[in-house]
Design goal:
Blueprint: H1 2-16, H2 20-23, H3 38-48, H4 56-64, H5 66-75, E1 81-82, H6 84-88, E2 98-101, E3 104-107, H7 109-114, E4 127-128, H8 130-135, H9 142-149, E5 152-156, E6 180-183, E7 188-190, H10 193-196, E8 209-210, E9 240-244, E10 250-254, H11 255-261, E11 264-272, H12 278-284, E12 297-306, H13 307-313, E13 325-333, E14 339-345, H14 346-349, E15 355-360, E16 363-364, E17 374-376, E18 389-395, E19 426-431, E20 436-439, E21 444-452, E22 459-465, E23 473-474, E24 476-478, E25 492-499, E26 506-515, E27 540-547
Parallel strand pairs: 1-5, 2-4, 9-18, 20-27
Antiparallel strand pairs: 2-3, 3-5, 6-7, 7-8, 9-10, 11-12, 12-15, 13-14, 13-18, 15-16, 15-17, 19-21, 21-25, 22-23, 22-26, 24-25, 26-27
The structure holds the ligand Nc1nc2c(c(=O)[nH]1)N[C@H]1C(S)=C(S)[C@@H](COP(=O)(O)O)O[C@H]1N2 and molybdenum atom (MO).
Residues 35, 207-212, 271, 273, 330, 332, 340, 369, 382-383, 385-388 line the site of the ligand Nc1nc2c(c(=O)[nH]1)N[C@H]1C(S)=C(S)[C@@H](COP(=O)(O)O)O[C@H]1N2.
Length: 548
């Protein structure tokens, strides 16, 4: 009957999970931008981690439980010892549900019934949560451990205590030390702003990284004895891309076949995370998610084959009105077996510019960026550009790895808003860094930054103000010559110098851009604020200190 209760909770959760507060497990990870996969991963994270215990409401309960927990600690020494076999009897269908963590045995029954989403802990019911925590290590905070202790009922027999889990991220690639790490596992890092505008095409090593899970190990060679069972192992030679039609027919291609069969195209295209500049929006009013500053964006030249050529070859009529969306699936699979996924509208998918890429800046796509294949959807938000691509599916429906829009208040019905696809106009200053001290005697300050807009809308103007937006001067722009203003998927770099305003000890450098549709950026976050801090594109302001 508890099973029923949990199932009911589960249903409730399913309905409510689009409301961020329930999806939040209080960790960076689950509050991530997940433009699209947010909920799914939050859901699973909520599941997996006893950070599962970390749902916000739970945090509140935790405080109430504090006194109880102190008592528990005292009791700890006298607690009974249980063998794994005993714990196993308290699986998801039992009256009382137990889990273990290290040598602790916990009865989480009450937690499950009290907290929407708490039933996710059922994944570990009657067993150890350790393997889940290995994958979502960011949940294993002192706070969460403390909460868990409140549910302690005993000790696990030493012989049954799980050995330390292999680090699920131990096969992640080496990264360049200049990347600014916002979260280590899974790896999320910004490009260093001080180097970003030195290159029109961002060197692969400095390209920002946004991963939801461990990097699939696509380079494992025969005879390599790493036995990390948490990481999906695939070899580039063995990798297959499957295309599934509406009537269930599939074809599949190896990377070599794909390269040989279809004409190749190269396109300069930006990838920008919808959470870029979230930290900025957070200053205006608190938001949730990984606190990206202004460089969760990079620009590369991608080479691959047109998506529509592959679809046509699979017998799919790209003008069939029944086909509304094209879904993509990655090789990165979470503990419930669900791969990272996203979809784009068919109208976009059959365009000239969408490719299944195998090269990034002229070399094989590095592991962090989707080796061996990723889809590039120029002009759209980063989340749609699925890495480690293994499957393409055409469908009447949008991917249910739901993709929220932004704006609106707390009671937002996520289901009613379409996903973010094309990005609005964006620009940010990369140098100087905020709070740079300049000498008044120097007279001027050198400025550099990037601007970009979604949907191929080229940037037509970038302007700088040092008087709070009263007056503006325009910047010199560097653009991709091969792209016209109607099809500009690469970014625009800008440079200029401004005079240090007389008589001030500090001032703001403000930047804003205008795109081909004459869209420009809002002055503040006021009208675009949203709880998850997505697509923040207000005027970018960098405070500067003047030394006399
Ligand atoms: N398979 C897979 N594809 C993915 C992701 C992921 O975690 N797994 N992250 C997405 C998000 S949210 C972004 S912003 C971009 C980041 O691409 P990059 O890491 O190459 O910069 O990849 C997208 N594609
Ligand atoms: Mo993203």
């Amino acid at each position: 009957m508890l099973g029923q209760r949990a199932a009911a909770v589960g249903r409730f959760w399913k309905h409510k999970r689009h409301f961020n507060s329930l999806a939040c497990t209080g960790s960076e990870y689950s509050r991530e931008d997940h433009e699209q996969s947010y909920y799914k991963y939050a859901y699973i994270a909520g599941a997996a981690a006893v950070g599962m215990l970390g749902v916000q409401q739970f945090m509140r309960t935790a405080k109430l439980d504090h006194a109880k927990e102190e008592k528990n600690l005292k009791k700890l020494a006298n607690l009974p010892m249980y063998a794994q076999e005993e714990v196993k009897k308290h699986g998801k269908d039992a009256d009382r549900i137990w889990v273990t963590y290290k040598d602790g045995v916990y009865d989480v029954t009450d937690f499950i019934s009290m907290h929407p989403g708490g039933d996710k802990i059922l994944l570990a019911a009657g067993a150890a949560v350790d393997p889940f925590w290995a994958l979502y290590s960011q949940h294993k905070t002192a706070e969460v451990l403390e909460i868990l202790e409140g549910y302690r009922i005993g000790r696990l027999d030493v012989k049954d205590v799980p050995k330390a889990e292999p680090d699920a991220f131990s096969n992640d690639p080496e990264r360049h030390p200049a990347l600014l790490v916002r979260n280590a596992k899974p790896f999320n890092a910004e490009s260093p702003p001080s180097l970003l505008t030195d290159h029109f095409y961002t060197p692969n090593e400095l390209f920002f990284v946004r991963n939801h899970l461990p990097v699939p190990d696509v380079f494992r060679k025969k005879g390599d004895n790493r036995n990390n069972t948490n990481v999906l192992q695939i070899k580039t030679e063995d990798h297959r891309l499957t295309i599934e039609t509406m009537n269930g027919k599939t074809i599949d291609l190896s990377v070599d076949e794909l390269k040989k069969k279809y004409k190749s195209y190269t396109i300069g295209s930006v990838i920008q995370c919808a959470g870029n500049r979230r930290a900025d929006m957070n200053q205006y009013k608190k938001v949730q998610g990984l606190m990206w500053e202004g460089t969760a964006i990079s620009n590369a030249e991608w080479t691959g084959v047109r998506l529509r050529d592959i679809l046509a070859d699979a017998g799919i009529d790209v003008f069939d009105e029944k086909i509304k969306h094209v879904h993509f699936e990655g090789c990165d699979v979470d503990p419930t077996g669900t791969p990272y996924g996203a979809s784009i509208p068919m109208e976009k998918a059959r365009g000239n510019e969408v490719i299944v890429a195998y090269h990034m800046n002229g070399v094989d796509i590095p592991r962090d960026h989707g080796a061996p294949l990723r889809v590039i959807v120029p002009g759209n938000v980063g989340a749609r550009q699925v890495k480690w691509l293994r499957k393409i599916i055409v469908s009447e429906k949008e991917s249910d790895t739901f993709s929220p829009a932004v704006n609106i208040g707390d009671e937002l019905k996520w289901d009613t808003v379409p996903s973010i696809q094309e990005y609005p106009v964006q620009c940010a200053i990369c140098t100087p860094a905020p709070n740079t001290k300049v000498d008044r005697d120097d007279g001027t300050v050198d400025i550099s930054g990037y601007a970009w807009s979604g949907g191929g809308r080229g940037i037509i103007r970038i302007e700088i103000s040092v008087d709070g937006g009263e007056t503006w001067s325009s910047c010199e722009m560097e653009q991709e010559e091969k792209q016209d203003k109607e099809h500009m998927y690469a970014w625009t770099l800008f440079r200029t110098e401004v005079k240090i305003p007389p008589g001030v000890k500090e001032f703001n450098i403000i930047a804003k851009a205008v795109d081909r549709s004459y869209n420009t950026q809002p002055e503040t976050a006021s009208g675009i604020w949203n709880v998850r801090g997505l697509i923040h594109n207000a005027w970018h302001r960098v405070p500067i200190i003047v030394k006399d």
